[in-house]
Write a structure and sequence with these properties.
Blueprint: H1 2-30, H2 38-57, H3 61-84, E1 93-96, E2 103-104, H4 106-119, H5 127-134, H6 139-146, H7 152-169, E3 173-174, H8 176-188, E4 192-196, H9 200-207, H10 217-221, H11 228-231, E5 235-237, H12 249-258, E6 265-269, H13 272-280, E7 284-288, H14 293-296, E8 301-304, H15 307-316
Parallel strand pairs: 1-4, 1-6, 4-5, 6-7, 7-8
Antiparallel strand pairs: 2-3
């Protein structure tokens, strides 16, 4: 009978140690001390330090590891709770790529214009291929890779002239599901900002475009609502930083302007340059696009092939924003 009691006694200590360890991991991953009593954790730390010494002097060596583990987990939980405070949300800000995320402009506008410019020099390539390979990368870099023998600055000037013409003739389609996310973030008063590889004048034009569609309840409601309603003047262009995507500069500058720790920012982008830049900036990334081996290996990146699934996932999560 005594052996059974001893087993239950020892098992209780180890189960407690495991539970305290899980509590510590939860605080670390959520970066929030919400619901954690600093006084209680301090008490558990002192209690289990004393228990460890008591076990040692009474030769209860099987329990020393458990009591020591509880003491250590309590101390770490205490320190993390003091560091993160009562943060209820994981992210304090969201950084959006513009083309292909907020508006369907990557292929119909950018890639189409680039194809037309290259076609004039006898280089044939489809807009879809350009979008897949170079989404989010500076246009000059695109031309350097596809037409290294030509003057990339001249090609860039021609491209933006065509883009202006396209925008004057057509209205880019907003990504309806992402607009739902913007509305949600607005209600939560979560700061948002655009980090784009495009020039400032282009971003300003797109900010003035209406985000509503002729069909759908939300589309009709926002038919005459410009994107600027949500972002105001919150955007960073690659023109404003030293290094364009895939360098982290635009994302770090975006976090700086919002006065938010980069680790508390979430990036949403549709290009590998967004993924690489966001990860390099120490941010979590939601990638909208086809997953490959490179993307799968990244731990702080989650991927979706459809924007509706992306938004549905984010809206279902607790304490993200």
């Amino acid at each position: 009978m005594q052996e059974v009691i001893n087993f239950i006694f020892i098992a209780g200590w180890y189960i407690s140690a495991i539970l305290f360890g899980l509590q510590t991991l939860k605080i670390f991953h959520s970066k929030s001390g919400a619901g954690v009593s600093v006084l209680a954790m301090g008490g558990f730390f002192v209690l289990n330090v004393n228990s460890t010494f008591w076990m040692y002097f009474h030769q209860e060596y099987l329990c020393i590891l458990a009591t020591g583990g509880i003491a250590m987990a309590s101390l770490i939980s205490l320190l993390l709770a003091l560091k993160y405070g009562n943060n209820k949300q994981k992210y304090e800000a969201v950084i959006f790529d513009l083309d292909g995320v907020l508006f369907d402009t990557q292929t119909p506008v950018h890639a189409t214009a680039e194809c037309e410019v290259l076609k004039g020099y006898g280089i044939e390539i489809k807009p879809e291929e350009i979008s897949h390979r170079f989404a989010g990368i500076s246009t000059q870099q695109v031309f350097r890779e596809l037409a290294s023998h030509l003057d990339s600055k001249k090609l860039l000037e021609d491209k933006w002239k065509l883009v202006r013409e396209i925008l004057n003739k057509t209205h880019p389609e907003p990504i309806d599901s992402i607009i739902r996310l913007l509305a949600h973030l607005s209600l939560k008063e979560t700061p948002i900002i655009i980090a784009s590889a495009s020039p400032k004048w282009y971003i300003e034009i797109i900010l003035g475009k209406n985000i509503g569609k002729s069909s759908g309840e939300m589309g009709k409601l926002l038919r005459h609502t410009p994107l600027k309603k949500y972002f105001h003047e919150n955007f960073v262009s690659a023109e404003e930083v030293k290094n364009p995507k895939p360098a982290p500069d635009v994302f770090l500058e975006a976090a700086k302007r919002l006065k938010v720790n980069p680790k508390r920012c979430l990036v949403i982008g549709d290009g590998k340059s967004d993924v690489r830049g966001g990860v390099a900036a120490g941010m979590d990334v939601v990638y909208l696009g086809k997953v490959d081996e490179e993307i799968e290996k990244l731990q702080n990146v989650i991927s979706f092939s459809d924007s509706s699934d992306l938004v549905a996932y984010l809206l279902k999560q607790q304490n993200l924003f």
